[in-house]
Amino acid sequence: MNDILKLIANCVENGKIDRNTPYPPGMKGQDGADELTRLALDSGIKPEQILDGALVPAMAVVGDKFSRKEIYVPQMLMSAKAMNGAMKHLKPYFSTGETKRKGKVIIGTVAGDLHDIGKNLVAMMIEGGGWEVIDLGVDVSSEKFLKTIDENPGAFIGLSALLTTTMENMKKTVAAIREKHSGLKILVGGAPVTKEYCERIGADFYSPDPQGAVNYLKQFAE
Amino acid sequence: MNDSTFKFEFSDLNLDVRQIEMVMGYREGESHEAISDLIAGALIDAESFCELKAEYRIFSGIEFNPSEKSVKIAGLEFSLKKIVFGQLRKSESMAVFLSTAGEKIGEMSRKAMKDGDLLQGYIYDVIGSEAADGASALMQEKLKMAAEMEGLRITNRYSPGYCDWNVDEQHKLFHLMKDNFCGITVNSSALMSPEKSVSGFIGIGREVRFNKYTCGLCDMKDCIYRKIR
Ligand code: B12
Q1: How far apart are CA A120 and CA B198, in angstroms?
Q2: For residue A156, how far is its CA from the centre of ligand 1 (angstroms)?
Q3: Which ipTM score applies to this complex?
């Protein structure tokens, strides 16, 4: 059983989505994350074993390599694609509640800002860390965050901004969330954001890259 | 010198796979075959997805205020801050510019991401950024030639939001660029639309100097441009 989990993890690390994925050259024509996950489920391996024993560790390896600048965004995204190839077989178990993820993370780009690429990368890596991600998109008002928090009590919050001006709206959103939910953990990031700024506006955690957020969240996993 | 508008062809940018890879972070000798292939394909798509436009307007009678590190253009005072002020202060006139790669490349990027293909979306995004910046560079070349015809020189280009110059000052800049040819608008938080757009100043005069960007002056230690420029 361990063998197939190792194979799935290897596919995710190398961006091998399915049989048709032509790379890496050495794995041409072989099954990818998609087929192997189906096979694993059919042979009785539990979805959570696939999630925690293959996908999460593989994405952690990928995220760490990215933090150490051994790989760059494109390879991280290739791995994400392979992860999604596996994830699609697990999603039915998530939606029935049969398989639980580590918790929920609500993420969005703050009001007045339309930049989403960084936020999307973070959302994808957090999902790869075994969390359920609720992506509210761009230009998200404080009200929208608050409403989604009400619908998902106890969720973690991730805020992104591109400019120093929109970063001010991040401050407003943090204040609005704090007013109603003092205990929620708020993560912030984006090009102009710094650790100092994070502290100044009363957010809980800043990371310049997605893996930092995944590592931070680990301690709160259910 | 006259105000001018430009349309450029994507091929004028001479973008190649290597340059896109460098912006993505790949160093000398590093690449990934599958990704190089995707970039090559996206560069072909981008020929029809990018609509490169640029415009500059020349303002004379500008006044510098050394104690405030500011410049007054058409009655509007721009607080340039130390670094940009130092680069522009000898200008006799100012070219205020805008450039854009158009809306479509951003749309295609967002569409790809929405359809679950983050990688394709990211590649279009990076190409769009390079195209917007490249359109400014081409516009700057045109300005340089026009200036040289009159025996004048130009500075490098400087944008609000860089080197301490507050990004909010874009609102005043857009006052000077009403009904601009590029069709760019700016929202209340100083974000331009289309997203792949650049705004800024280029100084013109007999005494000005063209200085390369010196990353040492800026405090963005993680900037991708620091590594490649
Ligand atoms: C490429 C680029 C451009 C491109 C494209 C911009 C775009 N929005 O698509 C072009 C050339 C068009 C451009 C234009 C401008 N730019 Co620009 N640009 C950049 C640059 C170099 C990279 C941005 C990028 O796409 N990075 C790649 C993505 C994947 O990274 P990311 O979004 O930052 O996300 C990562 C992290 O931040 C983090 N993260 C993001 N969100 C979150 C959330 C959480 C919770 C966590 C934990 C982590 C996290 O993880 C992500 C993955 O690693 C940055 C500098 C830099 N090195 O970051 C400047 C930068 C963003 N630009 C800046 C500025 C000022 C501008 C302009 C205003 C300049 C001008 N006057 O024309 C315009 C604005 C454009 C507009 N639409 O309004 C400033 C913004 C700061 C400020 N002063 O407000 C920056 C920071 C540069 C600087 N030195 O100051 N720009």
Answers
A1: 23
A2: 24
A3: 0.93
Count of CB contacts below 8 A, A vs B?
77
pLDDT tens digits, B155-200: 999 999 998 999 999 999 999 999 999 999 999 999 999 999 999 9
CATH number of A101-222: 3.40.50.280
Q: Is the CB of A160 under 6 A from ligand 1?
A: yes
Please state, for a pLDDT cut of 90, what percent of chain A lies above it. Answer: 92
What does the alpha-carbon distance between residue B6 and residue B139 come to, in Å, rounded to a whole number? 7
Distance from the alpha carbon of residue A57 to the mean position of ligand 1, in angstroms: 30
**What is A1-100's CATH superfamily?**
Methionine synthase domain (1.10.1240.10)
pTM of the model: 0.95
